[in-house]
């Protein structure tokens, strides 16, 4: 490398020396050549040098023009990034004929004056050229010294810088790719969010339509319910009347049954009395037969006693005959009395029972006739009531059918409404999940982008600090200006990193109402506000956004009056010249600042008209080094 630089320096010196020629030599060369020639000189300085000499000789006007132009000679060995000094000598002639002596004298005088003037100009130009060459030599010497210093710096730092460049080139390329992918995905997310918002608006419209129809159905149902209530009240009244008549019928039926039971009881008693009479008659017959049997037995005993008496003594026979006659008479009297008394009792009891049964039968007949008339009247009333009840039951059945139809329709409407609500809830839940997923992905991408931006910023600050500490930036800029354009790419790789730096960014949001600070762009482009309520609009007029950067700088923006943020919508407040369009209320542009600012500790606060904090957004970035 050093040998190439020395070769380049020797070529520069030879080229500069070859440019220094006496005026007479140039004039002689021009006169001898008779045409134009070109010489090329390599120089390390920049700028242009123009030498004009006007020569008039032998009626020939000779124009010598020497011009230095800057050109990169990257094709020459050892002259990378140098300057090219071209000397072009153009000579032309124009024949002049038919000139008078006066004109020749004037021409000679003009020629001498021009020659003197040219001589003076050439002397001045030669002096300037000499000064320029001296300056170029000094610059070349300084250039060689700077090149040596640069080579020394490259020898010390070039290896680490190249490794760091190779190491971070892939990371930076991946970071740029991730940022581009994140921007593309963010655009896709914005498109999907817009489509989801349109779907949500359509679902809300359908939901409101269903709600309106449901309210109409509810009014109709309420009317039918009132009609049904009236019919049911009338039906209950008729049912109460019918129950009253039924109770009366039951009471009459009970009385009739009771009377029939009494009649049946009387008949049973009559039958029992008849059976008793027959039984008593049978008993009388039995007693008569028994009496007849006893009489025959008595007669047999008497005969036997008489036979015994015939065999016994006369006094004994007489005694027993008398006693037996007395006993027989007593027994006969007693038996006659008992039979007579029993007969009288039976006849009196029978007559009494017959009279009672006849009285009961008469009363039962009277009551039965009354009951028959009452039952007939009740049957007529029941028939009439049954006819009315049939009509009312038919009307009730019709009303119940209508109620059933309305209930079925109501159930269908409720099922459709619930299905629509379930579909809406499912759609909203799916949309929320998708939005949360997209927001999480976007937040992850933004976190990655912010982390990469922070790492790049820290890397840049470290490089700038290292370059400013060793004075590398000034030397590199000097070399770039005086040496070559190709080496400008190498200055980007003269960077050194002494350790690894990691960043951690945390976000914290809080709100006291429906308005939240949904997002703050890490690059300070915009701030997004969101109305999280589903149906309530919020007036953000004259609210203030206060953004404090690292507890030093504070930016305050006042939202224009009568700015309404719709329910479920967002509002972006862009900084000036950051790509935002002023389209209230979805998009506003803050003309007071071209950025919302970035920092390690950023606090954004939303303050209402009363000076109360309604929402905050805190961003903290922590840097750790190893």
UniProtKB/TrEMBL annotation:
Keywords: Coiled coil, Intermediate filament. This is Intermediate filament protein B. Residues 503-621 form the LTD domain. The keyword Chloroplast does not apply. Residues 483-505 are annotated as: Disordered. Belongs to the intermediate filament family. SUPFAM superfamilies: Intermediate filament protein, coiled coil region, Lamin A/C globular tail domain. Residues 122-156, 186-248, 277-311, 375-448 form a coiled coil. The lineage of its organism: Eukaryota, Metazoa, Ecdysozoa, Nematoda, Chromadorea.
């Amino acid at each position: 490398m050093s040998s190439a630089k020395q070769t380049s320096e020797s070529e520069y010196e030879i080229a500069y020396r070859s440019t220094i020629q006496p005026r007479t030599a140039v004039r002689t060369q021009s006169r001898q050549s008779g045409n134009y020639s070109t010489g090329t000189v390599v120089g390390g300085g920049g700028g242009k040098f123009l030498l004009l000499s006007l020569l008039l000789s032998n009626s020939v006007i000779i124009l010598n023009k020497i011009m230095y132009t800057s050109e990169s000679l990257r094709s020459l060995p050892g002259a990378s990034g140098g300057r090219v000094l071209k000397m072009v000598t153009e000579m032309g002639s124009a024949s002049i004929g038919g000139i008078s002596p006066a004109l020749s004298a004037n021409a000679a005088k003009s020629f001498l004056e021009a020659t003197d003037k040219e001589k003076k100009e050439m002397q001045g130009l030669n002096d300037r050229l000499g000064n320029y060459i001296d300056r170029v030599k000094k610059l070349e010497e300084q250039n060689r010294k700077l090149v040596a210093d640069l080579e020394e710096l490259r020898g010390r730092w070039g290896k680490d810088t190249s490794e760091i460049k190779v190491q971070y080139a892939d990371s930076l390329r991946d970071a740029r790719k991730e940022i581009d992918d994140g921007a593309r995905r963010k655009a896709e997310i914005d498109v999907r969010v817009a489509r989801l918002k349109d779907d949500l608006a359509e679902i809300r419209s359908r939901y409101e339509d269903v709600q309106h129809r449901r309210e109409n159905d509810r009014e109709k149902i309420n009317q039918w319910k009132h009609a049904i209530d009236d019919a049911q009240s009338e039906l209950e009244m008729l049912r109460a009347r019918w129950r009253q008549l039924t109770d009366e019928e039951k009471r009459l039926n009970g009385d009739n049954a009771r009377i029939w039971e009494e009649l049946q009881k009387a008949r049973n008693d009559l039958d029992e009395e008849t059976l008793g009479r027959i039984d008593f008659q049978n008993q009388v017959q039995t007693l008569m037969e028994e009496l007849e049997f006893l009489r025959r037995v008595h007669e047999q005993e008497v005969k036997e006693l008489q036979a015994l008496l015939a065999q016994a003594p006369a006094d004994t026979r007489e005694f027993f005959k008398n006693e037996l006659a007395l006993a027989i008479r007593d027994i006969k009297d007693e038996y006659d009395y008992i039979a007579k008394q029993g007969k009288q009792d039976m006849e009196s009891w029978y007559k009494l029972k017959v009279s009672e049964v006849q009285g009961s039968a008469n009363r039962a007949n009277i009551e039965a006739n009354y009951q028959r008339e009452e039952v007939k009247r009740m049957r007529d009333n029941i028939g009439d009531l049954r006819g009315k009840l049939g009509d009312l039951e038919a009307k009730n059945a019709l009303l119940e059918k209508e109620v059933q139809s309305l209930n079925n329709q109501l159930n269908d409407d409720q099922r459709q409404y619930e299905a629509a609500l379930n579909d809406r809830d499912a759609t909203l839940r799916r949309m929320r999940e998708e939005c949360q997923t997209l927001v999480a992905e976007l937040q992850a991408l933004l976190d990655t982008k912010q982390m990469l931006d922070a790492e790049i910023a820290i890397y840049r600050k470290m490089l700038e600090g290292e370059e400013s500490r060793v004075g590398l930036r000034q030397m590199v800029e000097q070399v770039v200006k005086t040496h070559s354009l190709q080496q400008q790419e190498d200055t980007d790789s003269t960077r050194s990193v002494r350790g690894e730096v990691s960043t951690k960014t945390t976000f914290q949001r809080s709100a006291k109402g429906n308005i939240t600070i949904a997002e703050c762009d890490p690059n300070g482009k915009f701030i997004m506000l969101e109305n999280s309520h589903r149906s309530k609009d919020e007036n953000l007029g004259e609210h203030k956004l206060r953004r404090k950067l690292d507890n030093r700088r504070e930016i305050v923006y006042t939202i224009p009056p009568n700015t309404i943020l719709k329910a479920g919508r967002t509002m972006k407040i862009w900084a000036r010249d950051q790509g935002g369009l002023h389209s209230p209320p979805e998009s506003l542009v803050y003309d007071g600042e071209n950025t919302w600012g970035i920092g390690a500790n950023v606090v954004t606060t939303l303050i209402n008209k009363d000076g109360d904090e309604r929402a905050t957004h805190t961003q903290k970035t922590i840097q750790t080094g190893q």
